[in-house]
Amino acid sequence: MQQNIFDPPPGSLRSSVGRGALHTALSQAVLLATQIGSVVVLSRLLSPADFGLIAMCLPIIVLVGMMQDFGLLQATVQRPNIRQEEVSFLFWVNIAASLTLATMLFLSAPLIAAFYGDDRIGPLIAALSVIVILSGAAAQHGAILQRRMRFGRVAAITATGAVSAFGVATLWALYRPDYWAVFAGMVAGTLIPTILTWISAAWLPDRPRWVPQGRSLLGFGAGVTGFNLSNFVTHNSDKVLIGRAWGVVELGMYDRAYKLLLFPVLQISSPLKRVMVPSLSRMLEEPHRYRSAYLRVQRLLLFVSLPGVACAIALADVVVDLALGAQWQAAAPIFQALGFASLLHMLNSSSDWLFISQGRTRDFMIWGVVMAAMALCAYAIGLPYGAVGVAVTLSVAQYVKTPILWGWLCRKGPVRLRDVITSAGPLMLAAHLAIAVVFLIKPLLPQTPILTLLTGAVVSYAITALLISAFPTGRATLREGWELLAPVLRRIKPRPANVTPPPS
Questions:
Q1: Mutual angle of helices 214-246 and 386-409, in 10-degree steps
Q2: Which pLDDT tens digit goes with each residue over 416-460?
């Protein structure tokens, strides 16, 4: 039987997932470094008002990006069997949507500027329509690489784009320190990956035409899009409301705190989705294997991320001062409040893998609507108290919605609610204990900021490892983590120099 050009080559799925996770981790290390570097460097070159202007525009760009995607990338990745004419159909749908939305965005720029009451927004929104076209051109090519499980190639392209964006934005800011520096970085970070993705996929679409499976593909995409639009409301309406009610400076503080905390978190969870969705989609016929693979990766994800977030929450003022500078200290309480939301986000982010890999896009969309409604209620309660109030109510909403999410999700499929509680419960408990301990011993930590954070992180990870070792799933996580780390340590361990014996 001839191999489908869109499927991965025959071989071990486990080894593909393992290599994909390794390549993704290396890519994310580069991405995380550039994101942190961008926050640190650009925060010193640009003003809070500059970031406030960009933060006003980004929700609109994110919304447009979700609409142009229309969930069709996940349709390409998840579909058990897909043919050339179907992928070509999806490509042309993405192109048509991108061109239409870019035109609408360009024409609506004056209205958006009038909404915010700032004339600088109009030209910036119009210019950002270019990014919509560039990203739409590479959408299906990127989905093809994911379906083929070319995770190493995807990781390299992602890292290259991040480095390009950081470099261009920094050079522009040094030459002309204004908000256009961020725009220039965004263009570079989209154009270069688009070119590399086309080259790597080595695929050309057929001419535009309707296909028999078109309705089914669009229906799958509609469910994903419904969730994405609801997710957009959840994660962007806070910035719109703060910008409208409190102005660019308050929004700039919120935006920097949000990115400093949640961007590193997202750089861990989001790329894993590119590995786990195609991998889990091919395990649906083996429920035990599906459940085991998901829970193992979920536990490792939480063990890697939660202690670091816990340390950042406890030492929020140190993190903000070291990363952003003394002029951003007003962002420290915002950062600390958002930290509790990010703890739950690390757990909840993996729910996407289950919804999409199981093809439950209708359930996915319904959950998105519920999540958006809860978020809007939280923002309405917190907005009168400024950015700090919004951050606090956002975290409270995360604690309320988490049990609802997992109860809704686990009523179907191979993963049950009991599995999630047994797997993730000890790690979540340990993270909250670590926050309390690091906060209490803060006066005893070294006074140098870097040493303060390093010591706090060591304490946080040690407490987490100690507590979860009391549970079978925790011991399994520690054992699996060591199995992944041991080969790396053996490679970097210095070898003794060869000594030439003296002549006899």
A1: 160
A2: 999 999 999 999 999 999 999 999 999 999 989 999 999 999 999
Specify whether the CB–CB gap between 13 and 151 falls below 8 A: no
Residue 276 near residue 401 (C-beta atoms within 8 A): no
Handedness of CA 333, 62, 344, 366 (dihedral sign): positive
Q: How far apart are CA 175 and CA 255, in angstroms?
A: 24
C-alpha 242/C-alpha 249 separation (Å) is 10
**Three state DSSP letters for 468-479:** HCCCHHHHHHHH
CB neighbour list of residue 208: distance below 8 Å, 6 or more residues apart: 88, 89, 92
- In this prediction the pTM is 0.70
Phi, psi of 389 (to 5 degrees): -60, -40
Give the separation between CA 16 and CA 1, rounded to whole angstroms. 22
Cβ within 8 Å of residue 2, ≥6 positions away:
none
CB contact at 8 A, 44 and 248: no
